[in-house]
Each structure stands twice: as C-alpha cells, then as structure tokens.
Amino acid sequence: MNDLDDIEWRVSTDQILYPDALAEMEQRNAAVQAGDSQELIWLIEHPPLYTAGTSSDPTELLSQEFPVFETGRGGRHTYHGPGQRVGYVVLNLKKRNSDVRGFVHALEDWVIAALAEFGVSARAVEGRVGIWCDTPDGQEAKIGAIGIRIRKWVTMHGFSVNVDPDLSHFGGIVPCGISEYPVTSLAQLGIAIKLREFDEALQKTVGGFLKAIDQA
What we know:
Layout: E1 7-11, H1 18-34, E2 39-44, E3 49-52, E4 68-70, E5 77-80, E6 84-90, H2 100-116, E7 123-125, E8 128-134, E9 140-151, E10 154-162, H3 195-214
Parallel strand pairs: 1-2, 3-4
Antiparallel strand pairs: 2-6, 3-5, 6-10, 7-8, 8-9, 9-10
Helix pairs in contact: 2-3
C-alpha cells in the first residue's frame, strides 16, 4: 500500500477552529479503528492559537494573546496560525509497520522531502524535536514541528510547516521547549509560495512516506 488509493486526501481552504479539527480527527480515528472509514491525510490552516502537548511546561507559555488548547499529542507548546500548513494524519499502523519511532522518522522525512522541492536543505536533529534548516545568515532555525498521538495503533495529529506565518506569534511560547534556536519560514528564507504550492509538494512526495511506513 504505497499510494493514496485507500486514503482520503483532504485540503481545507478555510481556516478551521482547532476544537472542530480535533473533534473531526478523534471521530475519524475511532472510525478507522472500527474499519468503518477510510484513513485520512488532512491539510489544514488554523486561526492563531497555541496548543499544549502532554509534556508541556506551563512556564513555557509566555503570553495568552491567543487561545490555548490542551491536546493529547506528544510534545510541548506549539503555535498554529495563518500561513502555516498543518498536516493531520489518521493512519492505521496495524495495516503497516507497527513501529512508532519509524512512523515519526517517516513523517519527518516526508516534510524534509517536500521542503527539498523548493531547494531547502532541511533535516531532523537527534535530541531536538522538529524540522530544522539554516537561515541565509547561517543560523540554525526550526521550520517545522512534529507531534503525534497513537490510539490503538491509529495515528492522530502530525506536522506543521511554516510557509509564511507571522513569526512574531511564536514569541508567546517557548516553541517545543527549545529556546536556544529561532523559528523560521519559507518566506523568511526568500521562498515566496502559496500554501497550495506546498500542498502540491506534499502530494508529490507522499509516496515515499507511505512506502516507508509499509516496510517492516
């Protein structure tokens, strides 16, 4: 199973409120567990908000300018907002390789492959959550976040990539608990694209992701 034939690929063009997206994800997760629904890859954009993962530290929430939502995904605080592409992935790992770490690595590699379509040399860094790249001045910076939850071997949540968000909004948190490095975006790197163009890169490279999680 290395294509999208049995997976719903959904792109929401309107901003979706976080509680609505979470409810939709949880409903789909249960339906996939029961065998009553297709799996789902959902590309979405949220209005400005902060989420708190299961390892979040309240001291790392520096501002309450935007709503804060508790979420069942792993990780700490993160920001979602306009100009950021969020990918929610509801896949049944029982049908594939039931390997949580392998799933996370495959998710990272998928985002990295999509960024490479725009000439960005991104990477995962051992011991540091997220997707990283170098800014034009040589500073290492975070361009994407990864956070998942797995319930009865069906995944939820996924990734976010900064295409052209307001980076000042990240100042209200310590992103994923890492204060030593800045956050960047494709726009800050001088790559002016629309979310739709990044979606096309994700769709072009999704086969490699699905193949990776199919391998035992």
